[in-house]
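call fold(seq) -> tokens
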Amino acid sequence: MVRFFEHASRMADRFARAICMLAAIVLVTSVLTIVVLRYGFGVGFIQLQNLASYAFAVFMIFALPVCMAQDGHVRVEVLSERLSPRYRVWSEGLALVLLLIPLFALTIISYWPNLSYSWSIRERALETGGLPGIFLIKTALPLASFLMIIQGIAAFLRRREAEYSAPSLPVDPPSPSSSGTG
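ret:
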């Protein structure tokens, strides 16, 4: 089970990183294009503004699982830094079971009807002339929530395994007399 979640965590991290990189490139390119067109040529396109907004939304949503995979999330460790590592492992397990999984599962469950409706009408931007495909952007939230659940479980299993695994003993090289060539 640990191996499954480790593999799933690596794949989820690669996927989320790729989406973040693509979104960052699109965001920077679209914002630079907006600025050059607006201030250089006095022209603006609502599609470019939608593209920048969509890229920013996707970047921020998928940055959460990337941060979780890298153990970069913020912890308030007023008490736990003075306690044993085993306590920290189990407190993080409780936080996973009582907070992370229910919160992101609730996000998926409660958002699903809105997402289904958005897909059924192939929702597009509200602005006249805006980009189509907002339903694709709305899919990012439940997908990232699912990735957060995977990353949270994998992080807990990694910490638990590191804490409860037997310490490795150094292996002594075989002595010349035990090699069988006497």
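Residues 2-164 form one domain.
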